[in-house]
Structures
1.
Amino acid sequence: MSEDKVVCVTGASGYIASWLVKLLLERGYSVKATVRDPDDPKVKHLHEFEGAKEKLLLFKALSKTLAEEAAWKFAKENGIDLVTLHPGVVIGAEALPGPYKLVDVRDAAYAHIQALEVPTATGRYLWEDKNETTQQFSKERAKSLGINFMPWELLLGHGYTVKATVRDPNDPNIKHLHTLDGATERLHIFKANLMEEGSFDSAVDGCEGVFHTASPVFLSTNDPQAELIDPAVKGTLNVLRSCAKVQSVKRVVITSSTASVFFNERPLTPDVVADETWFSDPDFCKKSKNWYALSKTLAEEAARKFAKENGIDLVTLHPGFVIGPSLHSKLNLSLEVILNIIKGVDTFPRPYRFVDVRDVAYAHVQALEVPTANGRYLLVGKVTQRCEVLKILHEHYPTLHLPEKFKAADCEPTYKISKERTKSLGINFMPLEVTFRDTVESLKEKGFLNF
Ligand SMILES: NC(=O)c1ccc[n+]([C@@H]2O[C@H](COP(=O)([O-])OP(=O)(O)OC[C@H]3O[C@@H](n4cnc5c(N)ncnc54)[C@H](OP(=O)(O)O)[C@@H]3O)[C@@H](O)[C@H]2O)c1
C-alpha cells in the first residue's frame, strides 16, 4: 500500500513523532525526518527502528512551531492540502490520574498516518479517548479517519452490558472484575460449566454478541480426552447450542488459537508467510501428542460445522502466545512461560508467536462490532526468537539477572505471519518492547518477579 512512498516528519526526536517514524518505517515508507541535531544522543533510538538503515534519513532543521492560524493562512494562499491534528494529553500504556483529556501515543501516531492516507481527510481533527473532565469532546471526525482508540475498559468501557460466566462466582480470583469501571451497573456474573449441558442458557439469553473464551489451557495431562478435548469440543458445542436457542444473538466470537493453525506437516522456513488458510491437522497433533493443539483444532472444526448447520454468524480469533499486563493475580500458562524464560528455566530455542493481551481483547470487540468481520483472524504481533526477547529485557532492565548465555544461532530469521486480515479489523499490534515492559512490570507488581 505505502511501498516506495516518501514522507517528511518534522521534530522527529519527539515522543509522538518517534512513534510515528517507527510506524511509518514498519509500513514501508521512506522517511525524511528533521531534528535539531542529528548527532544528539537523544535521537539514537530513531536509527534502531526496523528499516531505519535503509529508509530513514535525518535532516537538521531548526524550526519553530507554526501557529495553527499562520499555517492555515499560508496553506490557503499557497494551495497546500493541510490537515491539523489536535490530540489531548498523549500518554503511553499507563493511565494517569487526574482531570486529563487522554489519548494513547500509538493512536496519535496512527492518526498522523491516516491523515495522510485517507483521501477525504480534511480540516481539523480534535480528539481524545478518555475525557476525565466534565466537558464532552466529539470523536466523530477522528473516527472517520479510522481511529478506534486504544481500549481503556473495552466492553464495559464501550457501554455494553456484560453477562460474564465463571465456574465459581465466589472465587477470590474474579474479584478484579467487580472493580472495573461500570461493573456495578453493567456487569452480571453467571455460574456455568462447559461440561454441563444447558449451563450457558440463561447467560446467553438476551445477548447480542457472545464471546466464547473458556477452555482449558495446559500442556501436560494424564487424561487428554477428559481434561482437554471434551471441555474444549463439547463445551464449545454446549455454548453454541445455547446461542442457537435464542433470537437475540447476532454473532458468536470464539477464542481459538494459533494451535489450530500451525500443527501440520508444512515447513515453517524463514521464507514462509503463513495466513488464515493454514489449518492444524488432527492426526499430526495426535502423533506429536500435542493435546492442547488437538483440543483447539477439534473445537474449531466442530464450531464451524455447527455454525453452518444452524445459521450462526461465527468469527474465530487465533491468538499466538498471549502476554502483557494481567488484571488478576493468577499466573496463566503464557505468563508462566515468560517467567521461565526470564529465570532461565525455558532454554528451548524456538520462535514464539507473541501478541499483547490488550490487542487480543480489542480484537474481540472489533470482531463483534465490525459488520464485515467473518471467518478466521490470526492475532500475532510478532514472531520472534527467545534471544530477541532477552535483548529487549536486557535493554530495559540491565540489572535483571538473565542466567542464560545465548548463541547467535538462536536469533536466526523466522517465518512470518500475515497481518492483512487483522488489519481489516482495525488492529494495529503493539510493539513487542511495550508489551514486554508492561509484562515485566505486571509480574513485578504481582510479586512473581523481584529485582
Ligand atoms: N494464553 C495464551 O497464550 C492463549 C493463546 C491462544 C489462545 N488462548 C485461548 O484463550 C482462552 C483463554 O485463555 P487464557 O490464557 O486466558 O487461560 P486461563 O486464564 O487459564 O483461562 C481459561 C478460562 O477457561 C475457563 N475454563 C476452563 N475449563 C472450564 C470448564 N470446564 N468450565 C467453565 N470454564 C472453564 C477457566 O475457568 P476457571 O478460572 O474456573 O479455571 C478460565 O476462565 C482459551 O480459549 C485459550 O485456548 C490463549
2.
Amino acid sequence: MISLREIDPADLALFDEWYDAFRAGAVAGRSAALVIGREALGYSMRNPSPVKARIAVGAFENDRVLGAMLFEYRLTDNLDTVEVEIDVPPEHRRRGIGTALWQWAATRTAQLGRTIVQTELGVPAEPWPGAIFAERLGFVTEHVEEQLVVPLPFDEVRLEELRESAGRLDGYRLTSWAGVCPPEHLQAYADLHTAMDQDVPTGGMTREVVPWTLEKLEANEVRLNRNYLALVTMAHTVAGQPAGYTLMYLPRADAEHAQQDDTLVLREHRGHNLGTHLKLANLDQLAHHRTTQRFLHTWTALTNAPMRKVNTHFGFHPVEQHRELELRLPSLRPAARGVILDPDDRILLVRFEFPDGPLWATPGGGLEPGETVVEGLRRELIEEVGLEGFPDPPHLWHQEVVAEGHATGYDGVLNDYFLIRTTAFDPAGTLSPDELRAENVHALRWWTRTELEADPGRFAPRNLPALLRHLLESGPPNTPTQLTL
Ligand SMILES: CC(C)(COP(=O)(O)OP(=O)(O)OC[C@H]1O[C@@H](n2cnc3c(N)ncnc32)[C@H](O)[C@@H]1OP(=O)(O)O)[C@@H](O)C(=O)NCCC(=O)NCCS
C-alpha cells in the first residue's frame, strides 16, 4: 500500500532517497532535461526563503520512496497560486502513484485557500505521459517555449562571425560581472529585473508581478550565489541609463550544464543589435569561468521570432518543448474523516440534521491551517467521538464534491477518508452535547453492514453501503479511490 509523507529536508538520507526518485522521474526519456540539483534544492529546503514555501512529499511503499512531489507556494505575493511538480520513476508508473500525489496537492491547495495550480512540463516527443496525465486532471497549456542547447566550448569561428556581423556598439557601455551584483549597479539591476518580469511573455499563466526592491534583490543574489555562479552583462547608455542585461548561471554542483536565463533589451533601446552584443560579452565571461560544462541551455517562447533568430545564429538547436500549464480549481472546504470499524465490522456514523432531513456521515471535520490531514483527523476524532492513539491509518478515499449548499462560502467539499480499526467503544468526545449540536451533530451510532444496506436514508459518501461492502470484501485500495459523490 502506498502512503504519502512530507520529507524532512534535514533528514539527509531520506532527502537523498526522495531526490533520487524526483530526478529519475523527471529525466526519464529526456536527453536534455535540466533538473534542479540535489545541493541547490536541498539548500533551499533546509534554509527556507521568506518569500516561498517548499514542501517535498514522498510516496512510500514499505519505507521506500516510489514517487516524489515538490509543492511550492509564494508567501507574500501570488497568494491564489501553488506550483506542483510530480515525478514518478518509470518502473513505478501506472500504479496510481502520480494520482495519489496529486490528491495530496489538491487537499493542501484547498487547505491553503488557493485555487490556481501551476506546473511545468518538459515534452521531447508526443504522446508524452506527463502531458496526458496533466490534461486528464484538467490542466490547460497556457504557454510554450522551446528549450535549446548549444555544445560548449562555444564554436570560436561562429563567435567571430557574430562579432563581425554585430558591428560596433555605439552609444552604449557594457559592464560584466560574475557572482553577486556590485553595489553600484543594484538599483539598475533591480529595475531591469522588474522590467523583465513585466515584459517576459507567459501566455495565459496567472502571475502577479511585484517590483524588485533592493532588499529583495540583494537577498535573492546571496541565496543564489550559494549554488550558482551568475554571469551577468548589463548595458548602459553613455549617459548612464540602464538599457538591458543578460544572465547566465553555472550551477556550482553540476559539472555538465550551464543555463542562459534572462535577456532583456528595454523597448526604447531595441533595434541596435544590443541583444547580440550583450550575449557576446557574456559568452566571453563564460569562456573565462567555464570549467567542465559541456552544454549551454536556453528557453525561448515559440512566439518570440526575433529571439529564435538570434538563437539560431548562436548555434542553439531545439531539444524539447517547455510547457507551462495551469488548472483552476473550485474552492473546496477540506476535511479529514474516519471510517471507524469495530471487530464485528460495525461502522460508527454521525447524524447531521438538514432542512431536507437527516444525513449519516463518517466522523471527522474541517482541517485547520497548518495541520496535516492525519493531524486534523486525530484532532477531530478526539473532539467528536473520543477516539485516539491509533496508528497512522490507511488512506481509503479522496472525495471532491462540487455542489452548492455543502459548505457555506465554498463551491463544495473535499474529504479524505481513512480506515481505523478499533475495539467497540461508547463514542464520547471532548465536545459537549451543546457544542456538537452547534456543529450540527445530533447523534452517534454504530451500524452493522446489514443495517446500512437496508436503510433507505441518506449517507455521505452517498454510496457508503456499497463502498463499505467493497472495502470489507477486497481490503483497502493500494492508492486512494477517487470519489465524486
Ligand atoms: C506523469 C506521471 C507523474 C504519472 O505518474 P503515474 O504514477 O504513472 O500516474 P498514475 O498511475 O496515477 O496515472 C494516472 C493516469 O494518467 C494517465 N497516464 C499516465 N501515464 C500515461 C501514459 N504513459 N500513457 C497514457 N496515459 C497515461 C492515465 O490515464 C493514468 O490512469 P490509468 O493508469 O488508470 O490509465 C509520470 O509519468 C512522470 O513522472 N512523468 C515525468 C514527470 C511529469 O511529466 N510530471 C507531470 C507534471 S507535474
